[in-house]
Amino acid sequence: MTQQPKLPYIECNGVIVTDSDFCIKHLVKEGVSNDLDVNLTPEQKVDGRAWQAYLEEKIYPCVVKQRWLDEPNYTNIVNTMLRSVVWPVRSVVGWNLSRKIYHALWAQGTARHSDEEIESLMQDAVSDMVVKSQGKRYFHGTETFTTTDIVVYSFLSSGLLTTFDINWNRLVLSQITLVKYCLHMTESLFPEYEPLLKKLRETESNLEFTSPKL
């Protein structure tokens, strides 16, 4: 049993494993999941690990910072996640969570950035993903999705139906390449997610309508 206090974590066959990278490796080792990267070249595997680290360690803290420290995201997430907690206890619990997250992000470094710097980092990430996925069904140009696709898709789509990732959602949904990517992944993996599919299809249609015609 690991003693590392790090999220996310899983418990599999009586073993607790922390950190997404180790979780994935453990699930493959135990035969719970197929190795999605078995056909990747060594270079593609290195590239995939770099993207995973970039999104999880650099960009995700930026999203968390805007989610818990900036308005109106903060009010929206407190009212959503703590809706079962009566007022005014909800505001106290939300404030305590916000303070803990602030101190964690300050120690990690993200909270030391200005709002403009955070926005710039997020814009760069979206632009980088557009460049990487342009003209491809999957991130590495493969015939099937890989671990990198799962990471990227999860990161792009997890908050699209929420009201507490306003800036991140705006950036993602402004790029037709990423909208098409999320739509294809959702149709392939989660065809029952009708609200998300509806939003992605409507956004795709609007972007195609407003795109300049050559």
UniProtKB/TrEMBL annotation:
Reading the lineage from the top rank, the first entry is Eukaryota
Q: Identify the residues that the record assigns to the Thioredoxin-like fold domain, covering every copy.
A: 4-72
Any Pfam family matching the protein:
GST_N_4
For this record, the Gene Ontology CC terms, alphabetical, are: cytoplasm
Q: Which UniProt keywords apply?
A: Transferase
Q: Per the record's keyword annotation, is Transferase included, yes or no?
A: yes
Gene Ontology MF term list: transferase activity
- Descriptive protein name: Glutathione S-transferase
